[in-house]
Design brief:
Largest sheet: 8 strands, parallel
Structural class: alpha/beta
Strand content: 5-15%
Shape: globular
Number of helices: 11
Length: 330
């Protein structure tokens, strides 16, 4: 079986612009870690930095992770909060850009202390909302310069860019696999890659398997997050709940290329039990893994060589749907 992971926010309490008091009582960081441990199949978690509402120490976090048989795979610095409403890398104020980079350097120190594999960068406020609002050349250069400065300072750890087409900005500066790869190749450092969020790829009207193949071909697919959505918004639903076949194709592409990273959940179970949502997602991912073992790759390759969509679909349906049978309920 692959290694399964989750963003620690999966086990938090959510708010939106309607339920401003949240969809449940607040859940502290250590309780979030305990909930992740209760899933049973999770091995790693991605932690936000700073630890919001937490007045303990890093040793307390280490102890909670150890108690639950977990390790931190990544630190995600919060470079998308109110302090950075006009951007982090691309903020028009040099002092704010400096503060954002300081936060990312601090997050890197925490990641190194916890033995993480990478630091995840989601520059959700870097972009624009209106025509003529920004100079596109200038903010692109600011983004590349900031990333290069950060990654050059810490060659001992990897960084990943999680791209997304929009939200909270109308246009985010890293909206697609192609543009993100273009920026990474311009920077030219080996420790900068992509975290491909399956839902962001769907939402951006990409084919996630194609996006993964492109990132792999350039040697830049460092990590993945999986979830699902209705393709019109970043719904962060339980993986496999909508796009079964495209999810299977995504993981088939990873298997075909011998990609060995963590299968990581990035779900927002607003109204569902967070532990059960993770268990159900992993149940589906285990079925995907089983289906990959039984899929007739030789016949599939022949169907693809002939561009025979119906033959390919029959093979995929036989493998995927039969592999769902017999799995224990989450």
């Amino acid at each position: 079986m692959p290694t399964f992971g989750a963003g620690i926010w999966h086990f938090a309490t959510y708010k939106d612009r309607y339920a401003t008091d949240g969809y449940g009582p607040p859940v502290g960081l250590l309780e979030q870690i305990d909930r992740a441990g209760a899933v049973g199949d999770l091995s790693v978690v991605d932690l936000n930095w700073p630890f919001a509402g937490f007045d303990g120490t890093l040793d307390d976090v280490k102890a909670a992770l150890d108690k639950n048989g977990l390790r931190a795979i990544a630190i995600t610095p919060e470079i998308y909060t109110r302090d950075f409403v006009k951007g982090s890398f691309t903020n028009p104020d040099p002092a704010v850009r400096k503060r954002a980079l300081a936060l990312m350097h601090d997050a890197t120190d925490v990641a190194l202390e916890l033995g993480c594999s990478y630091v995840k960068l989601w520059p959700g406020q870097d972009g624009w909302d209106y025509p003529f609002q920004v100079d596109y050349h200038d903010i692109w250069q600011l983004a590349l310069d900031g990333l290069k400065e950060l990654c050059s300072a810490h060659p001992e750890i990897n960084y990943v860019i999680e791209y997304k087409p929009r939200e909270p900005r109308v246009k985010i500066i890293f909206p697609s696999v192609a543009r993100t790869l273009l920026g990474i190749e311009r920077i030219g450092l080996p420790n900068l890659g992509i975290l491909l969020d399956f839902g962001h790829s769907l939402y951006g009207q990409e084919t996630p398997a194609d996006a993964a193949q492109l990132a792999i071909d350039y040697g830049r697919l460092f990590a993945i997050d999986v979830n699902d959505n209705m393709r019109g918004w970043d719904d962060d639903m339980v993986v496999g709940s909508v796009h079964l076949v495209e999810t299977f194709e995504f993981f088939h592409t990873l298997r075909k290329n011998d990609w060995q990273g963590v299968w990581q959940l990035d779900q927002f179970p607003f109204r569902e039990d967070s532990v059960q949502a993770a268990k159900q997602a992993i149940r589906f991912l285990k079925a995907v893994h089983r289906a990959l073992d039984v899929l007739d790759d030789t016949a599939l390759a022949a169907a693809q060589a002939a561009h025979d969509a119906l033959a390919a679909q029959r093979l995929v349906q036989n493998a995927l749907l039969t592999s769902m049978a017999g799995l224990e309920d989450a």
